């Protein structure tokens, strides 16, 4: 497996790296730490630019060594990528060149929304990158997910498609899932029980519900194509994360 970890050298992104190593502790994997810098290559003082590049590379390599020491799996390999491209271009390039299967990104707290990768840009990654992504909240320590919630919109995902998702999913045990059907307005859907796993009555996705979810479950699982739920969770202006801290990981799954 090939895994991309986005880092800006903050505690939140360092924590996301540790979470990634723990999440895949039983899986052999190649990890790539990606850092993005806006180097001015037209600058005349080339020695200053060279020092900046060397310093940043040194920090990136140091973080890779720390993660290697932290990981309990000897089959975990850690590599570095330093890019001067914009975030989305750099991630897309890594996806192709390194054949990335899974991305980890730190989910900023309310004090960190100005960070270059965390906060606002995490939403861009989720919306524009078609790869499985786990957003790890600041300070969140890995524990084996025992209870996962899967908010679904029946207008986006039918019961047949829901079953296909779990047949394909390798990361989490489907028996640990609770399907939470999200409705808009007064719409009601038939066949509320899939017979595969617990299924709750359709509810509106409100901030209070999100608070309750974080108390009851260990991880939130959502489909990347379910844009309305992604927006309500992660939009940098209107989503829940814009006004409150996320406390449990969010797994954005792309089929």
Topology, pairings included?
Blueprint: E1 2-6, H1 11-23, E2 29-36, H2 46-70, E3 76-83, H3 87-98, E4 102-107, H4 120-128, E5 132-137, E6 148-152, H5 159-168, E7 177-182, E8 199-203, H6 207-216, E9 219-223, H7 227-234, E10 250-253
Parallel strand pairs: 1-2, 1-4, 2-3, 4-5, 6-7, 6-9, 7-8, 9-10
Antiparallel strand pairs: 5-10
Description:
There is one protein chain. This protein is 34% helix and 23% strand. It contains seven helices and ten strands. The chain has 255 residues and is α/β, with parallel strands linked by helices. It has a ten-stranded mixed sheet, with helices on both faces. The protein has two domains: 136 residues, 3-Layer(aba) Sandwich (Rossmann fold); 97 residues. The protein is globular and about 60 Å long.
């Amino acid at each position: 497996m090939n895994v991309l970890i986005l880092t800006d050298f903050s505690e939140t992104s360092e924590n996301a790296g540790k979470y990634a190593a723990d999440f895949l502790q039983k899986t052999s994997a190649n990890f790539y730490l990606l850092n993005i810098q806006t180097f001015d290559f037209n600058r005349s003082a080339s020695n200053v630019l060279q020092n900046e590049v060397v310093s940043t590379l040194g920090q990136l390599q140091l973080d890779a060594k720390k993660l290697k020491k932290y990981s309990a799996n000897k089959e975990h390999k850690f590599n570095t990528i330093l890019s001067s491209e914009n975030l989305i271009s750099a991630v897309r390039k890594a996806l192709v060149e390194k054949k990335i299967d899974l991305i980890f990104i730190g989910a900023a707290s309310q004090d960190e929304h100005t960070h270059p990768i965390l906060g606002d840009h995490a939403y861009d990654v989720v919306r524009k990158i078609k790869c499985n992504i786990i957003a790890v909240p600041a300070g969140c320590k890995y524990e084996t997910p025992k209870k996962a919630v899967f908010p679904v919109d029946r207008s986006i995902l039918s019961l047949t498609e829901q079953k296909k998702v779990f047949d394909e999913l390798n990361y989490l045990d489907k028996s640990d899932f609770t399907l939470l059907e999200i409705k808009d307005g007064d719409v009601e859907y038939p066949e509320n029980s899939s017979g595969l796993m617990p299924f709750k009555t359709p509810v509106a996705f409100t901030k209070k519900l999100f608070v309750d979810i974080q108390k009851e479950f260990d991880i939130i699982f959502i489909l990347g194509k379910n844009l309305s739920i992604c927006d309500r969770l992660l939009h940098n202006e209107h989503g829940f994360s814009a006004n409150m801290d996320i406390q449990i990981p969010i797994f954005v799954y792309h089929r």
